Amino acid sequence: MPNTYAITGATGLLGSNLANALIESGNTVFALIKDEQSRSILSRSANRVFGDINNQRDIEYFIQKSNPDFFIHLAAQTQAYDSLKYPYQTFYNNCIGTLNVLECLREFGGARGIIVASSDKAYGELIGETYTEDHPLKGIYPYDASKSATDLISTSYRKTYDLPIVVTRACNIYGRGDYNTQRLIPGIINSHITKKVFTLRNGGRDLREYINVDDVVQAYIHILYYAENLGPETAFNISSGDRFTTLEVFNLVQNVVGIDIPHTTVESHSLEIKRQFMDSTLLQKETGWKPQVGFLSILPSVVDWYLENLQLRR
Length: 314
Fold this sequence. Notes:
The protein has 314 residues and is of the alpha/beta class. It has helices at residues 13-24, 56-66, 80-85, 87-108, 142-161, 184-194, 213-228, 246-257, 281-287, 295-313; strands spanning 4-8, 28-33, 47-50, 70-73, 113-117, 165-170, 172-174, 198-200, 207-212, 235-238, 242-245, 263-265. The protein has 10 helices and 12 strands.
């Protein structure tokens, strides 16, 4: 039976791919959009509502307009590097925006399942071999701490008001449809197209885990069903096991492109977590979801998409 979904942050990489998948399955999707000019692969069949999560009236209108069966909150300031330059805006957007969404959903009371996107960064520095869901939330830097706060706010509303909320903590998401050239893969391709030198911070040694957006879309669908059926877990990691340094990713992308991409490495003392490994065993056990897309196998088609679409953007 088709359902109605409301999504904030629907023009982003995950939001647009998730909305499109839900629409293709016969569902109705309402998308809250802040920037009318944002470039996105979001389907024309999505019902666009323009507004800002920082404006509670905009959220109230969005919920009343969509009357959602399921609500997915993805909108956030997502760039760790920008958060260091604009900490106030980062905390305000990620914390107050989430508070506005959850308070309006509490008053609305009709959603059968709610997902709030946190991040692997909410854990802070890795203790032990991998992040599991019981790892302490100890974000230090502005983006990381704002996501820790998002987590806590969401759990508070779930426990206090019995809202069917599940928090997601995904590792680094990549795939087709990301026009944000501050992120690694589109940033590398953009440097290639514009003939600009690409900078690898921390000598390219930062170690990250990467997951394809199609796998995350399927994880969200599984999690919404879990939330609707009142599963006991409050948060899930979403990860793949594909782990690379940023220099390794750069070299893999460069190999697909087929020519050298100008780059430099800097030994900056960046305020970012240097090593992040996740464990998604709990999600797989509770929902039956498993990642299906391997980084090395899908990378050529992802790079080809960016070579075509970032070039068209210019």
